[in-house]
Amino acid sequence: MTEISFWERPPETAIRGSYSGEYTITLLDLPLPGSGAELPPHDHARARAFVEAFPTVDAVLEELPPMPASEFLSAETLSDLDLITVGCWGNVTCISDPALTTYDAGHDPVAREVAALHERYPGALIVGSAQVDFGENHTQHAIFLPDGRMFSASGFSCYEDSWHADGDPHVLLNALGIDPADLDDAYREDLGLEGKPHRTNWEMLGALALDHCGRKYPTGLEMSVFRVRHTEFYTAMMEEMSEW
Question: Is the pTM of this model over 0.85?
Answer without folding.
Answer: yes
